[in-house]
């Protein structure tokens, strides 16, 4: 199960950097929420602090002790931090990358671990330039200038081909977070990259589509297991499967797409609207409503239709009707909950002018899935 894959992400920065804000945003938490990393002025800590993801507790973001203080030694720091226990490192700076950032990257690489430079608080820089040059301000030009400055800083410290990502620590749908996710997808092994994607907030249509595709890629395996372990006969149709396993899996799909009470409550607070208005957008069952009775009902519906199998899986339908029915039911369910997640995201975008993704049309997404 993807939910059971461990992923340990180390987050590093100077005192006063917004590491805590990023850690909270990634875990979809506000500062006042239980388990949130404290922001603002806090005392420096000398050991790593673990912040598990609230939905996927085996995905842990680690806030490592501050760097760059007087007498800081990157070599001693890396030796003390037990680098081997982390899957990769995010080195965060809100202004300039300095020599100690570069030295830290050198020793992390020497220890055989991946690292990525993250330039945060980008929106603050954009606003300063906008105020200074309101008539000639160009966001894309300003972002490129920030990238070039970061690149020059690190190349001056002899960092070869540094991977630099510009992010907003409070709104991950903006700037380069999607590029960071795509880079990790390429660099991490497949289970861990899937684990990172699963835990990533539903902040963009691109992320939602990636989650849906990942789930669809795994459906055949879920169907095989569900039809082979602790099965029970479904009344009125010639299907035997593990209904309890399907209930747990489908609830997991709902949770990943934010279709459960707590996530909807947070979203409602975010857009300052009654939660019932958000629920009215959701046509699929919420996680708590996925019961054995519902799953049996959906299986019966799937059995009445032609199997919804991709070409490469058609031969498996001859093995037994159960696989074809279970797969078809799961595929329809994943597509439906993904569509609902897109609808909710549109609502969020509409409540924040100027934060939607460039070039993204939710109507096209829904049309491609056969929904409206």
Structure commentary:
This protein has 372 residues and is an alpha/beta fold. The chain folds into two domains: 7-198, P-loop containing nucleotide triphosphate hydrolases (Rossmann fold, 3-Layer(aba) Sandwich), CATH 3.40.50; 202-352. The chain is built from 15 helices and eight strands. It has a six-stranded mixed beta sheet with strand order 2-3-1-4-5-6, sandwiched between helices. A two-stranded antiparallel ribbon has the order 7-8. A hairpin with a 6-residue loop joins strand 2 (49-52) and strand 3. Helix 2 crosses helix 3 (99-110), helix 6 (177-187) packs antiparallel against helix 7 (190-199) and helix 8 (205-226) runs antiparallel to helix 14. The chain is elongated and about 75 Å long. The chain starts with 6 loop residues before the first strand and ends with a helix. Mean pLDDT is 84; it is low at 354-372.
